[in-house]
Amino acid sequence: MRLQIALNSARGRAQSLTSERLVNMFAEKAPEGAEAPVTVHGAPGMVTFADTAGGACRGLRSVSGVMYAVNGTNLYRIGSDGTASASLGTVPGTALVSMDTDGDILVVVTNPDAYTYTVSTATFAQIVDAAYGGAHSVIWMNQMFIFASATGHFVGATGGLLPFDPLLAASAEYAPDDIVGIARDHNEFLIYGQSTLESWQIVTVASATDYPLEAISGAIAEKGLAGPRAIVQLDNTTVWLDQHGIVRRLAGGYVPERISTEAIEHQLSSATLSTAEMLVYVIEGHECFALNTDVGTYVWDANTRLWHERESYGVSRWKAQCSVFAYGAWYVGSNADGVISRLDLDTHDENGDELIASMVFPPIVFGRDRFTVNMLELACDVGVGSVSVDPVVQLRLSRDGQDWGNGLQRGLGKSGERTKRVNWSRLGQWEKCHVRLDISDAYRRAIYAVYADITQDDR
Asked: How far apart are alpha carbons 452 and 130 in whole angstroms?
C-alpha cells in the first residue's frame, strides 16, 4: 500500500491524532501521470552573497535596482558582485527598520527617528525638521512619502520629502485604537490598528495645505495587526498576522480572509505576537511568506496554500529576517550577523551550516486493530550523492507522535546509483505508527511516496 506522505505542517493541540510536519521541505503538485500526485522538495538553501561584518540585518531595500542594507547600526550599498560599501551612515538601534524609496531618496525609519540617503548626491542625514513628529513606518505611494506613528499619519511635501507641513497630517477615523502598521495595496493606503483596519484613497487637493488622502466609506474591517513588521505584500494582495494570532489576507470587498489553520494558530498561541516579523520570497513559481516568531518560523505557499516550517541549524527558527529582490534573485539578511544570502533551491545548506529536512507523516492506523509493519520503502530521488558520498536518510517511529525511537539510517545513493532502493524491514507491531524522516546531508531532497507492507494482526 502507498502511504499518505506529509504535505503540510499540522501539529495541533492533539499531537497523538496527527503530528504531521514539514521542516525545511515544501510540497509541490506533480505533473499529471506521475508516480504520485505530489512531490516534497527541500526548501531553498542560503548561499553567501555579501558580508558587511556588521550586526544583524535590520532591513533590505532595492533602490533603482541596487541593494541597500541596514546591518547592525550602519547603512550599506551592496553591489551586484556582493561587494559592500563602507558605511553610508549610522542608523542607531537594534530593531527592524521600515524602509521605502522614491527611486532616489531612501527613507529609513527606526521609531521614532528617521534618516534619508539620497543616491544622486550620496548624502546621508537624519530628519530633524521641526514638523516631523516621529514614526514607526513609512511607505512611498503616488509621489509622496507617508509616515505613520501610533497616533496618526502624515506626509512630506507632494513630490518629495521636505519640508514637513504640520497641516499635512491626519489620524485614523473609524476607531480610536493606535496605529500599528501601514501598507500600500492597489493604490489604496491601508491603516492597521490594534483591532481594526481601514482603507484610505488618494484625492485631488485644491491647495498644497490640503491633506491628499481620505478615508474610503465602508472600507473597514474589525481585524487588527499584531505588530508593525508582521505584514507583507504577496500574491497581489496584503497578508498580515492579526491581534489574535490568525494569519489573514485581504480578499475582495475588504474581507480579511483567514489563511492560517487551527494547527498553525495553536503553535502561535504561545508566541509573542507583537514581535512577529514577516518576509516574502518567490522561487520557481512558489510565492511564499515566512512568519518569524519566538516559537518558530512558519511559511505559507500561495501556490499550494499549504504551510511548512523553517529552522536554521541549532535554533528553533529561520535565521533569515529580511528579504529583497535584486539582481535577478531573492536575497535574505541574517538575524545573527552581517551576512546577506541568495536563496537557491539547488543549495542544501545555509552558508555551510547543515539544513536539516524533516518530514513527519500522518499516522498509520487500522481503526483500533493492531498491525505489523513488515517493510517501508521510500520513493525518492536516488543517486544524488557524490562519487564518494552516499547521503543518509534516517527513519524514526513513534506511538504518540512525540517520543521517537532510535534512528535507522539508509543511503540515498552515490552519484549514478539510479536503481538504489531505500527500505527498512521488520519494524514491529503497532496500534498507531507515526513515521518521521530526517535528512541532513547537503544533497538533493525529493520524496514522492512511501510504500508499506503491512499485516493486519488477528484481534
From this structure: 72
Question: What are the backbone dihedrals phi and psi of residue 262, each rounded to the nearest 5 degrees, phi first?
Answer: -60, -35
Beta bridge partners of 140: 145
Report how far apart the first and last C-alpha atoms of the chain are (Å, whole number). 21
* pLDDT tens figures, 145-202: 999 999 998 887 545 566 788 888 899 889 889 999 999 999 999 999 999 999 999 9
Q: Are 76 and 88 in contact (CB under 8 A)?
A: yes
* Position 382, amino acid: V
Residue 115 carries which DSSP code? Answer: E
State how far the Cα of 191 lies from the Cα of 169, in Å rounded to an integer. Answer: 14
CA separation (Å) from 192 to 152, 280, 436?
11, 19, 40
Retrieve residue 235's grid coordinates.
500574491
Domains of the chain, each with CATH number or no CATH: 2-43+358-456 (2.60.120.260), 45-265+323-352 (2.130.10.10)
| pLDDT digit string, tens, across residues 356-415 | 999 999 999 988 899 999 999 999 999 999 999 999 999 999 999 999 999 999 999 999
Q: Is the dihedral of CA 431, 408, 297, 252 positive or negative?
A: negative
The Cα 395–Cα 423 span in angstroms is: 10
Cis before 163 (ω within 30)? yes
Alpha-carbon distances, residue 349 vs 44, 206, 256, 324 (angstroms): 8, 57, 36, 20
Q: Pull the grid cell for residue 136.
A: 514607526
d(CA 273, CA 230): 9
Between 17 and 103, the more confident residue is 103
With beta carbons less than 8 A apart as the criterion, state whether 223 and 271 touch: no
Q: What is the distance between the alpha carbons of residues 6 and 3, in angstroms, rounded to a whole number?
A: 9
Of residues 325, 357, 380, the one with CA closest to residue 43? 357
Provide the 3-class DSSP secondary structure of residue 254.
Answer: helix
d(CA 20, CA 361): 5
The residue among 372, 331, 393, 434 whose CA lies nearest residue 78 is 331
3-state secondary structure of 264: helix
Separation between Cα atoms, residue 355 and residue 45, nearest integer Å: 7
279, β-bridge pairs: 290
Taken as a whole, the chain contains a residue count of 459
Secondary structure letter of residue 265 according to DSSP:
H
Cβ neighbourhood burial of 31 (10 Å; 0-12, 13-18, 19+): exposed
